[in-house]
Amino acid sequence: MPRLILKCPYLKGKNASAHLENYTRYIATRDGVEIPAADLDKPATPKQQNLITDILRDIPDVKSLHEYADYVAAPTTGNASDFITQALEQNLQMVSGNDYYVKYIAERPRVERLGSHGLFGAKDDRIVLSQVKAEVSAHTGNVWTPIISLRREDAARLGVDNAAAWQDLLRLHAVDFAKQMKIAPEHFRWYAAFHNESHHPHCHMICWSTDPSEGFLTVDRIEKLKSVLARDIFEQDLISIYQEQTIRRDELRQQSSAVLSSMCKEIAVGTCDNPVLETLLREISEKLPSKGKMQYGFMQPSVKNLIDAAVDELVKDERVASCYDAWHAMRNEVYHTYTDNPPPKLPLSQQKEFRPIKNLLIQQVIAVRDMFSAMPILEQSHPEIEPELPSPDAETQFEEGTPHASWTADYKKARSFLFGSKEVEPDFVQAHELLLHEAQRGNAFAMHDIGRMYADGLNVDADSAISHQWYKQALDGFHQIESAMDDDECGAIYLRYRIGKMYMAGFGTEQDYSKAASWLEQAADDEHKYAQYSLGSLYYRGQGVEQDFAAAFDLYSKSAAQGNAYANYELGKMQRDGVGAQRNEKESQSNFQIAFNSFVAMEMEGSDDRLQYRIGQMLRDGVGTEPNTNEAIFYFERSSALGNPHAQYALAKQYLTASELEKVLAALGLLQKSAAAENPMAQYALGKLYRDGVDSAIEPDISKAIEYFTKAAAQENDLAAYALGRVYLDGERIPQNIPAAMYWLKKSAGQNNQFAQYALGKACLTGELLPKDVLTAVDYLTRSAEQGNQFAQYTLGKTHLTGELFPKNVQVAMDFLTRSAEQGNQFSQYVLGKLYLMGNEIEQDRDLSHRWLELSAAQGNEYAQFFLDHFDEIGNHDPDLFMASTNLLRQLGKIFEDQHRQMQSQTTQIDRKRLRELQRKKMAQGHAFDDREPKQEV
Question: pTM for the whole thing?
Fold first, then answer.
């Protein structure tokens, strides 16, 4: 496994201690000495052995060096010499003065020279060795001397076996060194030299602060530095390891699920070969509550202890144990890259990455609780896994090629491969083959499922045209079969439901909510619970029927009474929000909990991507259960693997909250898949990623950003339309295009996007980009302000206060300004603080004034800080005169701002990342952040 060693000793500017003088003599006499090749493989000499004994006694930390491991493995003269040299070289601060250290690392043998010596630094300027020696020797504070070492094969393979590569790497991470050493970036100074040793090339650094009082480095911060460097150097290796680790974790979860399911079945018939686990599962079943949140985090401590014991018993199974060992080995490979002390192997029950196994165990116990008691199991049918139609002998009920809708043996087998089950893993190849065979024989159910595979890209390239053709064949078949059946025949009722669903979704036909409602109503009248549920959703949204929340609530209630958990979920929402029924938090929670527990039980019977996505949503948002991000990600991952574009988008959003490179790259892949399925939110998210870039993972690409924004905007995504408008308006990486910017901003504003409305309102108000139109400006700003946009509220408040656009109205102005200030707008906070301080327009309130000014000043508003600094003085002066002087200050500020803008127009443009870095450095140097109104990005 690749490994990086980082040591961070420091010099204190004093000479070597007396008892280490022999080490100094060795270094002085060792410089440039080469051992004959013939002697390198001979046993270490007695003198070498004695010196090594002394070194290990005085500097025990050197046992972690690569060279010591080589010496222990083969105590030859060559390995002993390498170890002694590196041990003393990496601890020169103990045995020499500061000036000697600088000279040694710059001029010692095998240093890669960049002129007369090997030193390089943050800039390409010529480095004068004597000046560096003098600067380091005269420094009164600590001087850190990090040493970064790799094995030769790793350095050569990864391209870090030369001074130029190390120079680039250290310049890139200089800010990380400063951060971990608690040194302000503008005070940080460093030099380095690359020593091209045969077995273990390494780089020496010298780091200090121009402020001797700065600088502090702990063991934890050294580990963080090591982690940063290792992740950069071993980036490709780590991606491979993380992918393998994920595979091991998923295998472990799958094995655990299989073992649990198998053992529960064995317990039922009394043949379980693990009596300890049988006893534990029985005890858990007896102690599980009959209602409430069926998750580990909400169990009593006594139940948690039983569950932990069952999980640890489970890992005694050889299949589970081998998966856990493999996963732990992969995890330690990552840790060994940047730490010498990886965490110990914990019992499986204590490993947080596998907490879903505990909830999986709980759900297994719930699903088989009737084996231990008379408690009923939840209804497990749902819209995606329908009950079979009556067909006693499906193989002989139709002629070859005749349209039919039958759950034949081959069709049921295909469904098991398509959705998976406890016994069968999803296999899209087998599913596609079997479904094609069934479709050729005239089975409309199979035609429908092939349409879905082409829609979602399951084992085939996603192709909406081919998907439509298969869906159309299925719909035509459903119509033909239904028309030949009796009205009250069970199969006819079911087919009317399926036909209604296809018109509702626009599968194989134009989307037609009126036709959908007609077909669903026929099935709902015959008490078909899923038809009742679907018809209820049409009444809820007013699609194909007049919107009627009461009718929707009634239909959901009927469906839920028949055991449809999806209807329970919708009832929970309506009772929570008081829509179509009285607000009832207790009943709402009860329905959500029924839905969640049923969904989990249903999902255990067979994999369904839409159901997994729904469970992930509920876990993420804490609906019907406590929020649990890790478990939500688990279900999103399973749904994503089945091609669900919404789960892919949700999972990508979770991955993007992490800073790990492999998570960002995984998120990019998920978003690309989801965007290919025409998910506008995924297209918008991709546009943002390519617009802004992600450090070390995704380079900014404005062309791709515009491409994805345009795709999303074409699907009426208001955020994407606004983003496009900003790209064309800002003209940062493409030529500014005002007509295009206005087109997209108006499109977004027309979709009620508050940011676009504000931008257009400002443009109409100032007349800079559009002809000045006060009435239109006020309309846009008001619509934006009513949606809570703090900048629109500030603009309207200011105009009402000054009387620029309307008759002056202080009360209206105060309302807008207060709403904006409460959202954190520093400009509104400043204006309110000033108004309450002056007491001219409103009653004076110095306490309120001080509060608003403090909030504004905390965000860097210099004017607010000015008033705070002179807060008591204002009471002794005429407020009008004080205000006049303040106005002069503001005018001066505008002059500086104009000068700043002129200078900006004369400089070349820089990208967003560089601009943010420059702003951060300015603030680190004590400059105030630009207090102009910030641009809004979404």
Answer: 0.44
